[in-house]
Design goal:
This protein is an alpha+beta fold. It folds into 2 domains: 158 residues, Adenine-n6-DNA-methyltransferase TaqI, Chain A, domain 2; 144 residues, Adenine-n6-DNA-methyltransferase TaqI, Chain A, domain 2, CATH 3.90.220. It contains 11 helices and 20 strands. The strands form 6 sheets. Strands 2-9-6-7-4 form a 5-stranded mixed beta sheet, covered by helices on one side. Strands 12-19-16-17 form a 4-stranded antiparallel beta sheet. The protein has a 4-stranded mixed beta sheet with strand order 14-13-18-15. α5 packs antiparallel against α11 and α8 packs across α11. The chain is elongated. The two termini are 28 Å apart.
Amino acid sequence: MARSISAGKLPEGWNYGFLDDFSVRCSGHTPSKSHPEYWNGGIKWISLADSHRLDKGYVYETDNEISLEGVENSSAEIHPAETVVLSRDAGIGKSGVMAQPMAVSQHFIAWICDNKSQLHSWFLYNWLQHHKREFERQAVGSTIKTIGLPYFKKLKIALPPFPEQKKIAQILSTWDQAITATERLLENSQQRKKGLMQQLLTGKKRLPGFEGEWETTKVGKICKLGAGQSAPQGEDFFDKGIHDFLRVSDIGSSAGRFAPVSRDKINDRAVQEKRLSKVPAGATVFTKSGASLLLNQRAQLKTDTYIVSHLGFALGTELSDDDFIYYLFCLIDFGKIAAGTSLPALQLSTLSQIKVTVPTQKQEQNAIAQILGVADQEIERIRKRLLLLKQEKQALMQQLLTGKRRVQVDTEAA
């Protein structure tokens, strides 16, 4: 971590030492659950259930609350607002800043910063974020990995003067605001697309210029369903490969139809010996078995591709448009129709019997697919923008938090 920066290599004016020398380190505890009076007393208590609330700056809410009586009868402590917290168990390395006084469970470590002259809470938060992977590497354990408390006693940090810490925190906060705004924009776009799908793919909303009743039929009657064969074994099947080869892990990315469709190339020997299924471009491919089935993974092929046995495919016919089929399949919850508990599997015969109501005109199907395609393109554009913002922030953190790039501080503030 910051140990890589020795005192001799510190930027001018920076200090290097144990984090405990610049802040007050605190731990947490869980009051006895056999005493109901220790709980639901209005004191917010960060536990593993709140892992999803971390890495987002301020922590405003918690799943559970404890009471003052619970604090007084346990080793739990109420930490002041602006305390920085980090998970050392599940969700290792995830961090946040308390928006109000809170307590934490024993699965967390916390630091109280003076926010006056020694250490700024938001500088520390960003420093923890920047070194998150290192925290993940420090975790040990067979069943449940954790970072032991002795590690944090020896944790060192390189710090600029307090006014510079504050300025760095302000700069990175601006990036966080841009990232948050873009995340909200992405979520809104995804919700809009979801609403469009519910309206357009069910006939609740018709597009101008199209009339006539929709037909209620079965999936197996409007498209051709099929499945892949066993995957080739051995590196020789991939030597000088010339054919795209699709695995389960290749689909189900952010945008579905814009997902990558292959990561390997296979040669003609694999095609001949394994009799792999070659699926044409435009077909919808989806997971047919395994845990990934529950994630409803699917994508639309960009090129002709060979697929493996854990995947299925759907092709449009004279009655249906390929793009429309893809979006129609996005509405199907594969997990609900799969058989098996430990390793769910989707039977194509079951899928083929699902009833759907679709436009009888291929032109209307295509028009619906085009509108949803535009929505997908907008989602992908925002997603790429979000990724770029996060990458830029990481690069900026690398510069600012190590002193490779210094910031200008007002003379009065300094």
